[in-house]
Structure formats: C-alpha cells, structure tokens
Amino acid sequence: MIKRFIIAATTAATLAATASAQELRMTVWTGSDAHLSMLGGFADSFAAENPGVTVKFETIPFGDYVQSLTLQLAGSNPPDLGWLLESSAPTFVQAGVLLDVGDKLRGDAAYDFADFSEPAMSLWQSGDAINGIPFSTSPLVVLYNASMFEAAGLETPNEMAAEGKWTWDAMRTSAAALAGDGVYGFESMDGRGYGNTVLHTLMPIVRSYGGEAWSSGACGLNSAAAKEAITLYHNMIFADGAVVPPGEQANFFTGGAAMTVSQISRVSKLADADFEWDLAPLPTGPAGAAPVIGQAGLVAFASGNNTELAADFLAHMTSVDNVTTMAQFFPPARNSVLNGEVFLNSNKALSPMQMGIVADAIATGKILPSHPKFPQIQAAMRPKFDALWQADADVEAVLDSVCAAIESLL
Amino acid sequence: MATLTNSQTTKVSARSPSLSLGRREALTGWLFVSPILAGFLIFFLGPLVAVIGYSATEWNLLSREVTFVGLDNYTHALTENDTFWTVLGNSLIFAVGLVPLNMALALALALSMSAPFAGRVVFRTIFFAPVVTSAVAWAIVWKFLLQGETGTVNQLLAVVGIDGPNWLRHPDWAMVAVIVTRVFKTVGLNMILYLAALQAIPRDYIEAASLEGASRWQIFRSIIWPLLAPTTLVIMVITVVGSLKVFDHIFLMTGGGPENGTLVLAFYIYQQAFEFFSIGFASALAVIMFLLAVVLTAVQLRLKGGL
Description:
The structure holds two protein chains of two kinds.
Chain A: H1 2-20, E1 22-28, H2 33-49, E2 53-59, H3 65-74, E3 81-85, H4 89-94, H5 102-106, H6 118-121, E4 125-126, E5 129-130, E6 133-139, E7 141-145, H7 146-152, H8 157-162, H9 168-178, E8 184-188, H10 198-208, E9 214-215, E10 218-219, H11 224-239, E11 257-262, E12 277-280, E13 292-300, H12 307-317, H13 320-326, H14 335-338, H15 341-344, H16 352-364, E14 366-367, H17 374-388, H18 395-406
Parallel strand pairs in A: 1-2, 1-3, 8-11, 13-14
Antiparallel strand pairs in A: 3-13, 4-5, 6-13, 7-11, 7-12, 9-10
Helix pairs in contact in A: 10-11, 17-18
Chain B: H1 2-15, H2 21-54, E1 57-60, E2 65-68, H3 72-80, H4 82-114, H5 120-132, H6 135-145, H7 152-159, H8 174-199, H9 203-211, H10 216-227, H11 229-244, H12 248-253, H13 265-275, H14 279-302
Antiparallel strand pairs in B: 1-2
Helix pairs in contact in B: 2-14, 3-4, 3-14, 4-8, 4-11, 5-8, 9-10, 11-14, 13-14
C-alpha cells in the first residue's frame, strides 16, 4: 500500500513538474547587455503570469544569424521564437515555417492589434495570417558632423530641410565641399553599403527619384529614374571624390566622414564623439520625400515544441507596455506608442526633435525591398553591382545587366 | 609427449575456448584500429555517402521539402549553369597561381634557413607566425593594407611612382591579391616541412660532391632535389587539395567578388547551401569537388617517379 502510494506520488510529481517547468527558447542577434537585460525583464513578467515558464534568449552573431537559425529549424531542436529581418521574412513565410498568430492576437481585445501601423505590418501579414510582429521599424536617417559644417561655414542638412532645400543635389554639393584632407563628405551604412547592403545605399536615392528596385515581378533598377539617381551617386564617389569608395575604410563615427546614412541604433557609437553631431531626414529628390525603413520582426516557429506558449510570449512582448519599453532601442510599429510623448523622449541620446524626425519617417516611409528569393537576388546582383564601383563604369549598362541577372528570379 | 600436448591445449582452451591464435591476433588488430575506423566511418565515410545521396535530391533546408531528382543537379551544374564553370576556372587559377608560388617560396626559405646564421630562429619564427595567426585577423590587416587610395601597399608603390589599383575591388587584381596574401599566410608550414627534410639529408653526400668539385647548383639539382622528392610530393598534394578547399580567406577578403572574380568552389558550395538553402545542388558541387581532389591527388601520385 505504502509502495503504491510512493509510486503514485512520484509519478504525479514528475507529471506536475513536466507540465509546469516549460522553457521557451528565442534566438536574437543582439549581444548588447542593455538589450538582453530588457528582454530578460519581459521574460520575468511573463513568468510571473505563467508560473514555471522560463524564457531563454540565445544570441547568434548577426552575420551568421539566418544560416544558424535555418540549421536549427532543419534539425530536431528548433527554437520557439526568434527575430527576423525584413529581407528574410518573405523566404521564411513562403517556406511555411512561421506560426500564424492571427487568431491569438485578433482574439485578444486588450492586445489591440489594430494599433499596429498598416504599412509596417505589410511584410508580416498574408491574407488573414499574421506571421510575426515587427518590433523594430527603424528608418534610415542622415547623421551629420555639425562641427564640420560649422567649420566650413555651410548650411547644415537640418537648416536646409527647414527651408525645403535638403535634396540629393544639395547633399552632393555639401559632400563635395566637405571632402578633403583625408576626410570624406559622405559614407553609406558604416562603409558596408557596397556589398549585400547595396540597396540600403541606393534605395533612398532611387525612391526619391521615383524609382523602385522591383515591383510586380519586374525589375525597376534600370528605369530612367533609377539610372538618374544611381548616376548621381556614382558621380559623388568618382567624379567628386566625396564618398568613401569601395574598399576604403573611413568612419563617420570617428570623424572620417561628414555625413552618413544610418539607423538610430548606431547613435550609441557617437557617445564618445569629440565633435557636435545631429540627425536629419533623408534628402528629397524630384519625386519628393521617400523615407526608407529597415524592419525586424518577432516570430514564433510552427515547428517549435511549445507553439501555444510561444504565441503567448509573442503577444506579451509586443503588448503596448512592452513596445513602449522597447521604444528606447527599437522604433515601434504601434501607432499609440509612436505618436505619443513617450516615444519622443524614449532615447536618451536623441532629443524629442530628433526623435520627431524618426517618427515622421516611420509614419510615411516604405520598407526596404524584400522578396521570397531575396538571397538568390542578392547573390545575382552582387557581381553585377561590383562593375558599377569602377570610375569608368557605364552606369546605364551595368544597371541593365543587374536587371537581366535578376529578372528571372522576380 | 601426448600428455604435454594435451596440457598445452587445455591451457590455450582455458584462455580462449573458441578462438584460434590467428583469429585472436586479428581481433586484437581490429581492436587497435577500431577508434580510427569508427572515426573514419562516422566522420568521413558516413557523411560522404550521405552527401552523395543528398546530391540526388532537391532539398530545401528551410521548408524541409525533399524531392528525388536523380542526376539533375549534376546536369544543371555541368551543362546549364555558367557560374559553375566560372567558379571552376577561378578555383583552377587560384590553385595554379598558389601552388608553384607557395612551393618555390617555401623551398627557397627552407634552403636559406638551413644554413646556420645569426638570427635564424627569429627568421623561422617570423615566417611561421602567419600560419598560427587567426585567419580573420590576417584578412582584416591585409584589407587595410590593400585599400585603394589610403592603403599602405599603394602608398609604398606611390613612393616609386607606381599608381596601384584598388587591389581587392579590381577585377584583374583581386585574384592576384588573394593568392599572394594566401601564400604569405601558408608558406611557413611548407617551409618547416622542407626544412625538416633538408636536415635529414646526410651531410656526407653534399661534402663528397663538393670534394668532387660539384657546383652548388649541381649539388642542389643532383642530390638535394631528388632526396626532397617524397617531401615535395606530400607538400604538393597538401597544397593542391588545400587550394581547392580554400574558403575562409576568400570569404573574409573579397566575398567572392568583384564580379565573381574570386568566387571559388568551396565558397560557391557554401553560398548554395547556407545562403540559398539548396542542399541538393550544394551536395552535387561538393561531390564534384571531392572527385576533383581525388583525381588531382592520383595524378600527382602517378607523377611521383618523375620527381
């Protein structure tokens, strides 16, 4: 009798422990203590609502992220949740590996799904399915070395923007005037703008000229607008010598260039800058203002071991309160947070006025190009674009060859 | 006598009732080789067979869809895919550029280091140091040195009036730059192998030849070079196979560019497998690379007599 009781009690205790001690594993690409501490806070508050549940964050270096995540999903121990970049989202959606959290989020009135900006959700919705929630909707902005502008006696980008004169032509003139003595006028995307991030460099100009990388299965990089825009950038590099050219290392953040196009997450690199700096919107072009947004989403994986719990944590992490907390690092896609005072005061390194520029760009911006075959498109474009980064390149012919290389993939 | 024989038989039977001496020895032998055999089966033969199997499929790693396609991946690589031939050409150019340069430099260094002189150990260490240097650190340093306008290499060239190109971005020079920097990175290992072989050559042979009036070139041509032949073969096989498999150096320095000018086979396999998730096609490419390495090694072993 006693023996039976012991066996029953042990079995019950084991089952209870199994039922309550659940662990969610989430892959992220940040190794920042501040980010991980914030994420840990979300895990703690989730555990308080769901006793026995723990959330483990696994940092994978950014360069290896998609590869490592894919291998984990292909193996027998997939993560429950993860971060995903806008360029990878369509590939993962098409492969059917993302959990549809539509019912969960729409069915929860307190969650207020309608609060998410519709353009910001475009990549993460297909029909009624919601494949993820963007947690960072970060526009490209211009960071500039105000000390250099002042020393050269030039109007700053923000002064020109206030007068409606902040155009790509004005940017070209300023960059050329500021270049010299080992300093460049402009640097794109921390000097990484010629390889896989070439569209980060080109799309702000191309879209402001009325062009697009591709749409409805057709390549737009050889349109008249795109050719004009990219010719301007080519001239800035090779005719003016004003832009850090491919293969050169010069760093805006240490005073090696007067301007850069970047995202606000990079502002932390300016903490110890020995010069005055400011943030301005992207220049406008013949087609007007064309803010460009980079995006990252939070997704749950359909093959995860705890899909229901994963969907709960996804909802928890993207609740109004937690999105508000995240806004200090990651510009939100929730209108209620984006339009409030909280967002304008959320980043200690940026003034409310500067954050206002970020908020405006999020409200009207368009996400960077993406495609289910983005990795193949990227690889097909890369060797063709390499030919563009020569002083004597025939820009129009190169852009025709870029389109010829990717047309069949679009 | 009969009793003694019975006694011996009884003793043997008591130790191993069912195995003969030959079988016991065979079993002992198998037990000795079993660790390496297990490693070979698990980490080499198993994956090799698996890769051959994968190469007959169209397997999307992300969606886990697997379709049997027979030899389609090989047909696609060999007859429909222009990039494959560009990549194969690049791999051969890399090997043809790297192997002779590496071996000649390694031999020259080893010959100069074999004679005793002050600071010999320091020079050996200097030339061997890149072998143990991290590939990432090596690539980063060389990327700085080889920059277009502000690179140290071009600044030194400018002193003698030469306007150097943007080495890693120029379609004609990127391959040259990666070959030369790879040679500097790996030559130390071959130098040490040659040095060990040189030290194993009996001094009597060289002294006898000197007494007979042989010139230094004749001594090298008729004594040193033939005695180095086995080492030369080993170095050649290692260097050729290593040059075919080069990945990290290309990945870090050029990413296969510009204009696919340094896109080599191992990097292309990586791209297909881990950027496009086309495991089947990548496996077919890996099998082709394996066969290429086997054929080249076999050819070199056949040429052994000529060395």
